[in-house]
Write a structure and sequence with these properties.
Blueprint lengths: L12 H4 L2 H32 L8 H10 L2 E2 H8 L3 H13 L3 E6 L2 E9 L1 H21 L5 H19 L1
Helix pairs in contact: 2-6, 4-5
Length: 163
């Protein structure tokens, strides 16, 4: 953020229309567009590596379940940012592929918890390890502090978008 003359970090309209914002945001948009296009393609490749019939959008569900364990479908939908109908369809497809299973929620008999099956965990872990190895190769020339800073900034962006 650019600070104004008072140093309070607030911008007025004159500052916002200045050259910094005019240059920063188009550059940000361009780089995010390229990054997201490549990420979508990569997500598709990783999904197919888990299972040839897996939709790329479902890969993130496997990631979340591996990271956080059993979750309700409503929690997954809120985290991913999709509706209940979309989440139900994706979970049904993952169940049909044998990658996830549902069990009754002991805290609420009306609800279900979704979790990775053993097969789902094995397949996902293998693909995740291969992806991490690729990141290490691609970013091996970076200073570890730069990698940490990139992770911090991406986290900050994700939190900001979530709000």
């Amino acid at each position: 953020m650019h600070e104004d003359a008072n140093g309070d970090g607030q911008r007025d309209d004159a500052t916002a229309s200045g050259s910094g914002v005019d240059q920063e945001f188009p550059s940000l948009e361009r780089e995010l567009t390229v990054f997201l296009r490549r990420a979508r393609a990569s997500s598709g490749e990783m999904a197919r590596a888990v299972h040839p019939d897996l939709e790329s959008s479902a890969y993130g569900l496997l990631f979340r379940l591996e990271e956080c364990g059993r979750q309700r479908a409503t929690e997954l939908a809120a985290y991913i940012g999709v509706g209940k109908a979309t989440m139900s369809r994706q979970l049904r497809a993952l169940e049909d592929l044998g990658l996830v299973a549902r069990e009754p929620d002991p805290a609420d008999g009306r609800a279900w918890l979704v979790h990775l099956t053993d097969e789902g965990r094995v397949r996902f872990s293998a693909v995740r390890e291969a992806r991490r190895a690729r990141y290490v190769r691609q970013l091996g020339g970076w200073d570890p502090r730069e990698v940490a800073e990139l992770a911090r900034l991406l986290h900050q962006l994700n939190v900001g978008i979530e709000k």
